[in-house]
């Protein structure tokens, strides 16, 4: 009788896993698995308008462009919540068959420690697959036992987040990039069964710093759906502006950069090297949502020329203090992503 019972419950779990698509992945606005999505959280203070600070626009491969979400970023529904709830709801963070890490240079509640990379994100995967979420929101996401919470400090400025679903093998490459980023893992677990594959991730999780063989690294990544992304990761030892000193030259494209620049610390538009980097000053999203870059904490860039068609989302601002920080960019040549970001550039400073 007892064995009967456990057999039928195993069958139930099996059926549920196939039917409800329980594979760990990025989740769209309706909770369905998607290969990737991007959100643009709108700033509260806009030009001639004040918003709630929790509205956001959503983009994935099934859309034609930015779509205003019907959810708020602090609610229990929506793409980011659905994605992170795979960690929070199932107590997946206690599982010994999956790996997770929440990282942020400014974690929730804890004090700021300067030595880590200026990088924010979350990973969750098992032997099959999982997601890597990279974002710009300080003090986010919340500790696993607290459930999904959005910090009130994250309401004022604009923010972006990129989620990509990867198969297990890709996380071995991602782990190598993370070593350069040197993220502050404030909650993580790398169970024993993963130690042989992911020794450096386990070191980061144990708050030790793995050895580096250079000061920066590029890695191609392929999503579960076959979409190509390129991860650029620099360590604190590469003391330069990641956009001008490296990525623009490596991509061979002039870049328009949106980042959060504080007066007196900002790096000006720079045309000294072969490929130029120019600061965006004003954004216009669909529905005439207009705001200045100083109200936008997101960090992204697009090629100035449509034929170069490259978009990157990442960690670093064009700021003096961040030359000395670890951080990276994830780039894509997807035309839909490019159009979405290139078209919203309203004003930038040429050299
Ligand atoms: C989300 O934020 C808005 C704006 O600050 C607030 O009115 C609302 O109560 C918040 N909702 C939740 C669930 O925290
Ligand atoms: C994983 O957890 C299960 C259930 O708690 C336990 O039976 C199993 O021995 C654990 N496996 C390893 C490799 O630690
Ligand atoms: C997450 O980190 C916080 C702060 O160190 C700690 O209080 C909490 O217990 C951690 N949670 C887990 C699940 O490790
Ligand atoms: C432009 O950027 C390069 C690379 O970061 C730097 O070496 C150079 O000093 C900058 N030029 C100006 C005028 O700021």
Summarize the structure.
This protein has 351 residues and is of the alpha+beta class. It has 6 helices and 21 strands.
Structural account:
With 351 residues, the chain is an alpha+beta fold. The protein has one domain. 19% of the residues lie in helices and 30% in strands. Strands 13, 14, 15, 16, 17, 18, 19, 20 and 21 form a nine-stranded mixed beta sheet that branches. Strand 6 and strand 7 form a beta hairpin. The protein is globular and about 55 Å long. The N terminus is likely disordered. The protein binds 2-acetamido-2-deoxy-beta-D-glucopyranose (4 copies). One 2-acetamido-2-deoxy-beta-D-glucopyranose binds next to strand 12.
Attribute tags:
eight-stranded antiparallel beta sheet; nine-stranded mixed beta sheet; alpha+beta; globular; about 350 residues; binds 2-acetamido-2-deoxy-beta-D-glucopyranose; disordered N terminus
